[in-house]
Every structure is written in structure tokens, then in C-alpha cells.
């Protein structure tokens, strides 16, 4: 009776399933084709990068930079930041640096102690990251307002 019901519902599919379960090694079972072996590659392995091949990818303008140029550029950037940045934005930037310090200290503590109270580490680190994101967004507001006022 059950066979008749399933035969009515599923038709030939029920017969295939029934035959497969009764005799899995019968001629009705589906056999996979034999594996095909791929021929071995005759190409040699690529040579590892040497310093000369890597340096050929770096533009000559970057290779020619000396430390004096970097220190001069950093000094000019710092001087321009102090001269042209409003005090309110400097306060926000100082707070952002403090938040980076707090996050780094929490991460170092978790690494050194094994992070036993892991939930407290996650809460403190997430709070530092969240405050950093919000303060960073807040520091962008004066510039966008100044652009709107000027135009």
C-alpha cells in the first residue's frame, strides 16, 4: 500500500530509489567514470624573487629618496599643521591620539596576560574604537560646514 502511494506521487523516481536501497551493487546503480590523470607539467618552478627583480618594480623616484628629504617633509607638515589648524580641531586630534593609546594599551595588556576576562577586553577595546570613530567623524564636521558656508 505504501509502495502504491509513493509510486503515484513520485513515479519512476521511487522505483530507482527502491532498487538502489535493495541492491546497491545492481546494474541500476550509477557508476562514476574513471579518474583521468593529468599529465605532469614540464615547466620548471619559477625562480624566487631576487632583490634586483623586486627593485625593478619600484619607481626610481621612490628609490632615490634620502632620509633628509623625509625629515624635511615631516617638519614642514608639522609646522603647517600647527600654523593652519584651529585649536578646536587640535583638541579633537589630541583626543584621537589618546584613544589610539588607550586601545593599544588594552590590546597589549590582553596579549601579555592572555586576555582572561575576554569580555572586559572586548568591551573596553570596542568603546575605544567607537569613540575614535565618532570623534573622527566629529572632526570632519567643521571642514564640511566651512566649505558650505564659503560656497
Provide keyphrases for this structure.
151 residues, mainly alpha, 7 helices, 0% strand
Kindly describe this structure.
The relative contact order is 0.05. The mean pLDDT is 76. The chain has helices at 2-10, 12-22, 51-55, 60-63, 67-84, 87-113, 118-150. Helix 1 (2-10) packs across helix 2 (12-22). The protein is an all-alpha fold and 151 residues long. It is built from seven helices and no strands. The longest helix has 33 residues, at 118-150.
Shape: extended
Largest sheet, if any?
none
**Percent of residues in β-strands:** under 5%
pLDDT averaged residue by residue: 76
Could you estimate the helical fraction of the residues in percent? over 70%
- Classification by helices and strands: mainly alpha
Low-pLDDT runs of 5+ residues are none
Distance between the termini: 84 Å
Rounded to an integer, what's the Rg over CA atoms? 34 Å
- The total of beta strands comes to 0
Helices and strands, in order, run as HHHHHHH
How many H/I helices?
7
Oligomer: single chain
How is this fold's topology laid out?
Layout: H1 2-10, H2 12-22, H3 51-55, H4 60-63, H5 67-84, H6 87-113, H7 118-150
Quick overview:
This protein is mostly helical. Helices cover 71% and strands 0% of the residues.
Amino acid at each position: 500500500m505504501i509502495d502504491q502511494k509513493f509510486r503515484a506521487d513520485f513515479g519512476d523516481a521511487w522505483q530507482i530509489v527502491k532498487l538502489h536501497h535493495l541492491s546497491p551493487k545492481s546494474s541500476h546503480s550509477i557508476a562514476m567514470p574513471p579518474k583521468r590523470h593529468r599529465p605532469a607539467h614540464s615547466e620548471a618552478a619559477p625562480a624566487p624573487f631576487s632583490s634586483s627583480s623586486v627593485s625593478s618594480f619600484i619607481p626610481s623616484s621612490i628609490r632615490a629618496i634620502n632620509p633628509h628629504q623625509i625629515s624635511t617633509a615631516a617638519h614642514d607638515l608639522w609646522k603647517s599643521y600647527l600654523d593652519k589648524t584651529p585649536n578646536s580641531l587640535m583638541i579633537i586630534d589630541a583626543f584621537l591620539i589618546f584613544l589610539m593609546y588607550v586601545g593599544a594599551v588594552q590590546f597589549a595588556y590582553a596579549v601579555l596576560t592572555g586576555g582572561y576576562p575576554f569580555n572586559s577586553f572586548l568591551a573596553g577595546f570596542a568603546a575605544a574604537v567607537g569613540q575614535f570613530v565618532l570623534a573622527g567623524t566629529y572632526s570632519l564636521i567643521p571642514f564640511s560646514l566651512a566649505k558650505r558656508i564659503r560656497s
